[in-house]
Amino acid sequence: MSGRAPPGKRRGSFFEELKSRHVVKVGVAYGVTAWLLLQVGSLLFPAFGAPDWAIRLLFGFLLLGFPVALVLAWAFALTPEGLRRETGADRYTPRPSGFGGKFNALIVGAAAVGLAFFAWTHERHA
Question: Could you give phi then psi for residue 85, rounded to 5 degrees?
Fold first, then answer.
């Protein structure tokens, strides 16, 4: 099936196309994950004796990866059958609910607990 919108669904602006291809979600998720990695790196790199330039190198890699993540989000779509090229994906088929939402909540909860632990240990040693 093509990536075209069904007759009842008209595509609007370029931003609407970005939202329908989930590029905006990927960009926000990448930004949050990159920020979290930089925070963890700034806490752990000195503890392991990493050189001062290591955090700048991590930042550079994360910065270079951002446009790559956006291009991949534009080119591919997550369908119920798996990851497909956008031209052959049917983005308008609803995804089954269930385990995915619970798994996402578990990941967010684990990340929050980990971040709170790192903040607590950093505050105690400061």
Answer: -65, 145
Q: What confidence tens digit (pLDDT) does each residue in 8-56 have? A: 455 568 677 767 767 888 888 899 999 999 999 999 999 889 898 999 9
Flag whether the pTM goes above 0.90. no
For the chain, domain boundaries? 1-95, 96-126
C-alpha pair distances (Å), 20 with each of 3, 15, 26, 41: 11, 9, 12, 33
Residue whose structure tokens are 């069904």:
6
DSSP string, 17-78: HHHHTTHHHHHHHHHHHHHHHHHHHHHHHHHTT--THHHHHHHHHHHHHHHHHHHHHHHEEE
